[in-house]
Amino acid sequence: MRQDQNQYPSQLQCRTAELAQLARDLGGAIPAHVEGRDATGWVLVVLGGDGLPTQIRVREGWRQRLAP
Question: Which of 1, 12, 42, 50 is the most exposed place for a label (fewest CB within 10 A)?
């Protein structure tokens, strides 16, 4: 039982290092930006790497094509 208690800090440190590496890997997988269009193709939204909109574009003539 004492041996298990002595191994716990080492196992915890190893697991913490693995989780830190996973966080770094996931952070590197985030794209710089993402684009998406509505189903009609008249509205374009661009999101930055932080997930916030950087652009919202609506094509000319949308009033004739889209309902409010």
Answer: 1
